[in-house]
Amino acid sequence: MAGVAVSTTINGDSVEYLCQPDETLLDVLRDRLGLTGVKEGCGTGDCGACSIILDDRLVCSCLVLGAEAEGRRVETVEGMAHGDRLHPLQQKFLEHAALQCGICTPGFLIAAKDLLAKNPDPSEEEIRFGLAGNLCRCTGYDKIVRAVQDAANVMKGA
Amino acid sequence: MNFDPRFSTRNFASVGTRPIRPDGVDKVTGRARYGADFNMAGQLVGRVLRSPHAHATIRKIDTSKAEKLPGVKAVITAADLSDLTDGDAAMYDILDNCMARTKALYDGHAVAAVAAVDARTARQALKLIEVDYELLPHVTDVDEAMKHSAPLINDAIFTEGLEEKPVKPSNVTKRSQFGHGDVHQGFGHADFIVERSFKTEQTHQGYIEPHACVASVSSDGTADLWVCTQGHFVYRQHCAQLLGMEASKLRVTSSEIGGGFGGKTHVWAEPVALALSRKAGRPVKLVMTRDEVFRASGPTSATSIDVKIGARKDGTITAAEATLRYSCGPYPGSWAEIGAMTAFACYKLENVKTVGYEVLVNRPKTAAYRAPSAPMAAFAVESAVDELAKEIGMDPVDFRIRNAAQEGTRSSYGPVYGPIGIGPTLEAVKNHPHMKAPLGKNQGRGMACGFWFNFGGQTCTDLNIGMDGSVSLAVGTVDVGGSRASLSLVAAEELGIAYEQVKAIVADTSSLGYNDMTDGSRGTFSSSMATISAARNAIKVLRERAAQMWDIAVDDVVWEQGHAVAKGEKHGNLGKLSLKEIAAASGKTGGPIAGHSELVADGAGVSFATHICDIEVDPETGATRVLRYTVVQDAGKAVHPTYVEGQYQGGAAQGIGWALNEEYIYGKDGRLQNPGFLDYRIPVCSDLPMIDTQILEIPNPNHPYGVRGVGETSIVPPLAAIANAVSNAAGVRMSHIPMSPPRILAAIEAERAG
Ligand code: FES
Ligand code: FES
User: Fold this and answer.
1) Which pLDDT belongs to residue B437?
2) B539: phi then psi, degrees, rounded to nearest 5
3) What pLDDT, on the 0 to 100 scale, is given for residue B522?
4) Residue A90 at interface with chain B, using a CB cutoff of 8 Å
5) Overall fold of domain A4-79
6) Which helix (H) or strand (E) holds B322?
7) Sequence-distant (≥ 6) Cβ neighbours of residue B482 within 8 angstroms
8) What residues of chain B score a pLDDT lower than 50?
9) B24-32+456-601 and B303-454+605-753 share one fold
10) What is the ipTM of this complex?
11) Is A89 in the pocket of ligand 2 (CB under 6 A)?
12) Given 3.40.120.10, 3.30.420.10, 3.30.365.10, 1.10.10.10, which CATH number is that of B303-454+605-753?
């Protein structure tokens, strides 16, 4: 199979790559571009570990083809911090111990970022439903919800 | 120096605080490397071919077409993994589970594997492998498998633990029995007796990270394995033994681990990856798909349990009895035995008897799942206890308090308890505001207790003090959820320095002595003991060096708050030397300063919890909603309370999923019908309320700081607490887990029909 040439923007940088037509964006990000912060928990759109933001929309990168990123903007967990300054969500996840094993964390951070971009002042219920596409098996979600609430407060103040 | 592990009261400076974990920033920035995040130059992609049949003889495997496919670098079958187990039956089973030798024993059993230049080629190659199966009758249900008419899974198995060796083989591999007194007599003294049967379905640990490894075998016989595991030293031993290597030639590095809960305590694909790499002469990366994780790693047992409990009018239990049948998958295990040990561990009983049966079925090999075997036994026992309280007319908490085990009680599984937390957790629950909150229509409240042993085991730790006075702590227990933070706190506590001055890492198998794996809630318990011991050894060296710097006798130097202090009036002018100052001078006083520790951590200290839960049941659909949940558990001493809370909440959430939703569903054909997160649905954020926690601290007398394991007990009470809540809400006793809407609805309708 011949490769597809793709030009796209990832975390603000222009990136070009060749991929197979049937290759997922998740595989491109992880295996071709070394962005292994994007995790694979299922490969079928059920766990949210591979969450990315594609042109302002939260998607599972395992359900997007690498070729579909042509001309679009991709945002992954690797692009959340500014230099050595963590994003408030990252900081609050640390402070609240919203991660145990941490494999779900990149997906949750991206999903929470998308949620707060659309709804800066979510209720607990809105957070719970907003993050219902991401599975965490370690925390019982309690500390994740609290971290997002706290980050929302900080971001509103900023 | 002999290490004294006994508890002594102290005022803590670091332990009990809640700093940010040392591995945190890497985990929120995506930099942390998990099993599948490691790559080597020239690595191949490994894939495994799995049996679609529940039970079949493998007549022949033809790999020739796959081998000829361009890009395929190695194809292996059981023939490439010769049997080097030398009569070790347990190792043989591990080998057979990694790659079926003569029979496929479950849907998902590995039969062949390939290594190819890329994933697509590897997938294509799998399709070209021809396996000639002869189908055999199968059995997947635990009760069915015990029947005489059931298909035999292994005709060399004769039930162990019977008075006489049976004449015929069977699927029951072992019978075990625990207890004391005379239950027959005890039931004779009872005014009320409750007798019930229960079933629980098989569940999976459901860690979000699939099993993953990179194996690299060199032609000189040395090898590297990078893998997500709960125990890299154990993986090294097993892999080395199965591949005929010396353990020291195989270096295993544990990656960050994306959840294990017991499921990453066994080798599954790692020996296969090593065998592929050996044959191909290149590194091989092998990552399971989610489908493979469900079908071919190690879920927990499905069970069938009978319970009988009798009590006098005054609420004293006179006798308790249980028969427990646990599925093991196709290989012998000791799961029912553990269930039988834990079943009545919360109570002070004069007459108690439990019998466990280990049962083979055509399902994947059972592995540990957080306090393995205890939740199912607690479900059955705590449901019956609630029923009995109701019959007597006693409050369920008071009934349990009356019968709770205490210090000095002989446990139902044998040992006599030291100071324990069952009574205090019950008292805390009795007084908890949750117990008094009002309930609405169709809502019910349930509570239940749980017990777990906790393990200790072999542990080795190095503590190295740098010339700048910073401390590197190398531990050998894998960090499954924040233990590097708690162990840094312990090192800081013992040395009297700041938490930030310590950096903890998990060392690979070539850098540290053997460690048992992180299971049985032993990570923080045993490694903190080893860390304390290592720090005390380092302090001894620090005092010697200070004595040398001052030119005084070492006995005149004490260690106080991170400083060497000269004792006695004659040294009044000497002041103090900080750890930093002593470290800076170490080059001139005898070289590097370090403390090492190798020990067997004994006395892990049993742990108890009591949970409260409110459930709303929709009588029209059988759907449930968890309204409120509270966990009360004894931690001995919470080293990092936030992560202790996290363990409590995580265990409760897993228990909620198990109680209400999760189950392995097999078709008549013996195939797993729901091997994915869509159909095997674990709780999501919107399914759960906040999970309230209360940490009790009843010091473990066998640990210097009083620490007990905390990771597992929290999954023991939920099944029963929720079943009791559902029963109170819906007015029917639920005896089959999970209590999915159709099961609840059926129970409500059966009740209505009378
Ligand atoms: S890996 Fe994409 S949703 Fe699970
Ligand atoms: S922290 Fe382990 S899955 Fe969320």
Assistant:
1) 98
2) -65, -35
3) 79
4) yes
5) Ubiquitin-like (UB roll) (3.10.20)
6) strand B317-327
7) A97, A100, B21, B640, B642, B643, B646
8) none
9) yes
10) 0.98
11) no
12) 3.30.365.10
CB contacts, 8 Å: A42 with chain B: 290, 676-677
Ligand 1 neighbours, Cβ below 6 Å, are A 40-43, 45-50, 60, 62
Alpha-carbon gap: A74 to the closest alpha carbon of chain B (Å): 15
| Distance of alpha carbon B469 from alpha carbon B475, whole angstroms | 19
List the one residue out of B734, B753, B751 whose CA is nearest residue B743: B734
- The verdict on a CB contact (< 8 Å) between B34 and A103 is yes
- Joined together, the tokens standing for residue B102 give 């003569």
Give the bridge partners for B195, in sequence order: B308
pLDDT tens-digit readout, B89-135: 999 999 999 999 999 999 999 999 999 999 999 999 999 999 999 99
CA B327 to ligand 2 center in whole angstroms:
28
Q: What is the Cα–Cα distance from B351 to B371, expressed in whole angstroms?
A: 25
CATH topology of domain B35-136+210-257+264-296: Aldehyde Oxidoreductase; domain 3 (3.90.1170)
* Ligand 2 close to Cβ of residue A101 (< 6 A): yes
pLDDT single digits (tens) B14-25: 999 999 999 999
Q: Structure tokens of B594?
A: 């370090």
Say if domain A88-157 classifies as CATH 1.10.8.190. Answer: no
Fold entry, domain B24-32+456-601: Aldehyde Oxidoreductase; domain 4 (3.30.365)
Q: What was the pLDDT predicted at B602?
A: 82
Q: Where are the domains of chain B?
A: 24-32+456-601, 35-136+210-257+264-296, 303-454+605-753
- What residue ranges do the domains of chain A occupy? 4-79, 88-157
For B293, the closest chain A residue by CA position comes to A42
